[in-house]
Amino acid sequence: MTIVGNLSRDNAQKLSEFMSTEPQIRLWDILQTKFKAKALQEKVYIEYDKVKADTWDRRNMRVEFNPNKFTHEEMIWLKQNIIDYMEDDGFTRLDLAFDFEGDLSDYYVMSDKALKKTVFYGINGMPETKYFGITQMSKLCLITYGV
Questions:
Q1: Phi, psi (5° rounding) for residue 113?
Q2: In this predicted structure, what is the pLDDT of residue 101?
Q3: Which of 15, 80, 90, 98 is deepest in the core (most CB within 10 A)?
Q4: How far is CA 32 from CA 23, 36, 50, 105, in A?
């Protein structure tokens, strides 16, 4: 999952002060207008770059992580200590997966836009996994698994 947002000047200063003393965070590439960090035993990648954001007209901070690898306490820590500093935050990528019992041929996706579909078949010739969307880009990626 990738969450993007903007750090105001005040919040960037506050977050910088917190991150520089927090033992669960490893910082590098630190300048006045940018930094990179990993947190929670390298489960989270954090990047702030004001110059790049202003140049490319994008938000200045992003946080990447896999929520499946987090405990509930780690998720709360991430929200309270990192994400809450961000303004105008949102997702650039969110993958959804659903498990279905039975034949996946019985299920389809309705969309108002064209979606690429990739189907993987089991040794019995029945569909086991369907991908809808483009997995390498910031587009909808819906994954279904036959159980």
A1: -125, 155
A2: 75
A3: 15
A4: 21, 12, 9, 54
